[in-house]
Amino acid sequence: MDKLIIQGGGPLSGEIRISGAKNAALPILAAALLAENPVVIGNLPHLHDITTTMSLLGQMGVQLSVDEKMRVEVDTSTITSFKAPYELVKTMRASIIVLGPLLARFGSAEVSLPGGCAIGSRPVDIHLKGLEAMGAKIRVENGYIHASCERLKGTRLMLDMVTVTGTENLMMAATLAEGVTTIENAACEPEVSDLAHFLNKLGAKISGIGTDTLVVEGVDALTEKDLVYNIMPDRIEAGTYLVAAAVTGGKIKIKDVDPSTLDMVLSKLRDAGAEITTGEDWIELNMHGKRAKAVSFKTAPYPAFPTDMQAQFLVLNALAEGTSVVTETIFENRFMHVHELQRLGADIKLEGNTAICVGKKTLHGATVMATDLRASASLVIAGLVSKGETIIERIYHIDRGYECIEEKLALLGGKIRRVPS
Ligand code: EPU
């Protein structure tokens, strides 16, 4: 397995561009299953999870072709199977998002039940309960969800918890249902809104976009022709580079980003002492060489602090001036990076779902292991500031969500290289 080798060094500085958002690209590729005509999707990031989604669609008989601008055309007219097999779902739980579109358009879907994962048990009960309320017949047998329906029926759905992919699955299913579906306690994440805009461009009738109540008026078919849609910028990738720059006391500019999706992250970076300037599609961060101040926060659904930025900010706190209290409320086991950061010398204590961190002046390089995507990002940031060499093993996690991370960090002056296995 590949490794990353990082030499701790000076402040990051320079400019990079942010890629398309993984968590918007995945549901939008799945939503293409709803389209009667071929659609072209642009600004797709080059990531393992995107390749997995394309393989999943390909296995169903969907035709995918890449054009000269590296956009992907998805043509569902050749679809022959409505199955998401275990072999693919086990490598990417987000495969569950094909369930809603397959069921709504073809009346049948067989999707492997995703298992738990490193960060928590991650059930899909809310997805299934919502589809059943819309008239689907669902049976879980031999590790597979078997779903079938005549045409789905619009209804009022009140989600038990805020769930991102749950909201996406139900919203996609509702686009072709008979009548109006109201999704209350819906996730307001910008990626859900990006998907809703894509669906509306295809011909869906979704309102309340960006709020916790989505109203979907079902239509007979999504028939838009010649649609070209560009995926929104990745706010978590953007936040990760900003934190990396802040921890190193650096100054960077990130381009092709939407600052309005990062309000809470930018606010916490300002609390940490960063000077931040924004334009329509760029953000500049300048730490003026200073050490960050510790920041406390609790993760919660958007627009509150994102769980996907918790690990990165914990590194900032590990090296900051002062003590911080960080509470994770979304996933029950998303502190695996803490044990690895402790190996670099961080003073972090875990009490249930809370991490109490006393900032230290230095961390020291060691060999550490990536446990999940955002945990890996936090270890990379830690490596950039730890004295000496940090070796990160099991980095396949990072390739699922960060496009060319070592090239982008190298552009900012980071001393990082990949050693292939
Ligand atoms: N939940 C249930 N039942 C359900 C669905 C969710 O109990 O049917 C619980 C989950 O166990 C969790 C909470 O609800 O405790 C929220 O989970 P959610 O469903 O929102 O997570 P997700 O949709 O599986 C997406 C992102 C994650 C991100 C979370 C939270 C995608 C593909 N994944 O996951 O991204 O952390 O929302 O914002 O959109 C990542 O990119 O590293 C990543 C893990």
Care to describe what's here?
This protein is α/β, with parallel strands linked by helices. 31% of the residues lie in helices and 24% in strands. It contains 14 helices and 24 strands. The chain has helices at 22-31, 48-59, 86-89, 99-106, 125-133, 164-175, 190-202, 235-247, 263-271, 310-318, 336-343, 373-385, 396-399, 405-411, and strands spanning 3-7, 13-17, 39-42, 63-66, 72-75, 83-84, 108-112, 137-141, 144-148, 156-158, 180-184, 205-207, 213-217, 227-230, 251-255, 275-278, 282-286, 297-298, 323-327, 347-351, 354-358, 367-369, 389-393, 415-419. Strands 22-23-1-24 form a 4-stranded mixed sheet. The chain has a 4-stranded mixed sheet with strand order 2-15-17-16, with helices on one face. A hairpin with a 5-residue loop joins strand 4 (63-66) and strand 5. Helix 1 packs parallel to helix 2, helix 8 packs parallel to helix 12 and helix 10 packs parallel to helix 12. It is globular, with a radius of gyration of 21 Å. The mean pLDDT is 96. The structure holds uridine-diphosphate-2(N-acetylglucosaminyl) butyric acid.
